[in-house]
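Postdoc handover notes: sequence design on the structure in folder B. Input tokens:
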């Protein structure tokens, strides 16, 4: 397997979180522990950042212990910035179930992951329910003052139990979603992108790298952050339910790049679809069965005027 990592700068909060993780690994004195708690209390984004940093560092530790994958060869001297940039995100997503976030007591921290084609409904301790899409992964950290979830890969629907004294926050890529009691889905898009889809209620979405005011979403609003840009839409209720059709095995694509649609299908298994680079950017729209990737590939080829070359275990889409 060939690995390619990009050394991208992490934002200042992630840099500080990585520094705290490194210091905790050496052991904190009373003054340092008090300073850490003060840092966590100073900004609600700090807790999520620390959880993500712990997850990435714990993944490296476990990977070294497993042996067959030579982590030192992949990154001889990984810096905190490298770990929390694109490279760290790629590694964290590659080792499903590997991270063990050690900041929180064991009875307050839980990790959940789904395999290819697996969708799970997960009741949380506060009464909230998470529906976790196929090939997805998240970490849950609840305390007496807040509820934090880090969506590390894939997609999830959150039906949030109301608790005004403990805000419910989902961190996904560059976005942080804060709610009291509502229903919304979040999907990771690449290394730092994310899509937030409202089903009902009210949430505030902020970019973790900034301290500005957030964007309020209500009703059936949708907010997507990709390629460094934010895009807000207001789909109707029927469109929202179509977009959430993955819970019952249906995948809804609305003007989505072909390459992204194929990546979504890969989470559900079945026939492998290979997309040639020259057609990966073509846009597709429609509702398709997650269990029929071959049918999707043939339909996409017909609508886009491209070729679909079949093989026993895969189908290739090309010009």
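Designed sequence:
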């Amino acid at each position: 397997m060939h690995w390619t990592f990009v050394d991208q700068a992490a934002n200042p909060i992630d840099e500080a979180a990585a520094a705290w993780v490194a210091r905790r690994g050496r052991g904190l004195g009373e003054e340092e522990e008090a300073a850490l708690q003060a840092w966590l209390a100073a900004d609600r984004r700090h807790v999520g950042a620390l959880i993500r940093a712990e997850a990435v560092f714990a993944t490296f530790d476990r990977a070294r212990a497993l042996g067959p994958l030579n982590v030192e060869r992949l990154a001889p001297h990984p810096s905190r910035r490298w770990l929390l940039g694109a490279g760290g995100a790629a590694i964290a997503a590659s080792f499903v179930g590997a991270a063990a976030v050690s900041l929180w007591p064991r009875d307050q921290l839980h990790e959940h992951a789904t395999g290819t084609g697996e969708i799970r409904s997960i009741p949380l301790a506060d009464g909230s329910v998470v529906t976790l899409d196929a090939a997805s992964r998240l970490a849950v950290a609840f305390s007496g003052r807040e509820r934090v979830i880090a969506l590390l890969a894939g997609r999830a629907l959150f039906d949030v139990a109301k608790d005004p004294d403990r805000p419910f926050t989902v961190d996904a890529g560059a976005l942080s979603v804060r709610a009291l009691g509502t229903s919304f889905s979040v999907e990771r898009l690449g290394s730092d992108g994310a899509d937030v889809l409202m089903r009902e209620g009210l949430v505030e979405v902020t970019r973790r790298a900034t301290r500005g005011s957030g964007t309020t979403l209500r009703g059936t609003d949708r907010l997507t952050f990709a390629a460094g840009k934010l895009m807000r839409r207001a789909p109707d209720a029927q469109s929202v339910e179509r977009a959430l059709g993955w819970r019952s095995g249906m995948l809804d694509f609305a003007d989505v790049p072909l390459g992204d649609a194929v990546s979504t299908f890969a989470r559900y298994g079945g026939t492998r679809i290979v997309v040639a680079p020259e057609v990966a950017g073509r846009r597709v729209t429609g509702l398709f069965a997650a269990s029929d990737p071959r049918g999707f590939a043939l339909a996409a080829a017909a609508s886009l005027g491209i070729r679909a070359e079949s093989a026993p275990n895969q189908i290739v889409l090309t010009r």
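Context for whoever picks this up: The chain has three domains: 1-101, 104-244, 249-318. Don't rerun without checking with the PI first.
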